Amino acid sequence: MRMAGKEKSETKEERRKRLAAELRANLARRKAQARARRAGEADAREDGIPAAKGEKSGG
């Protein structure tokens, strides 16, 4: 339900640009996470998964 008299805070173009930027940032984070896992390093996040010790997984 729309509120009468309320003006949109952002235009469609602004929203599209904002969402595109968020998607790019998310993709960059996911790529960095995947690279770190391939290299056997721990996830950079505090709540991340610790690196495996010793054996590396093959692909």
Automatic annotation (TrEMBL):
Protein source organism: Chelativorans petroleitrophicus
Comp. bias (Basic residues): 27-37
Composition bias, Basic and acidic residues: 1-21, 38-59
Region (Disordered): 1-59
Protein's recorded name: Uncharacterized protein
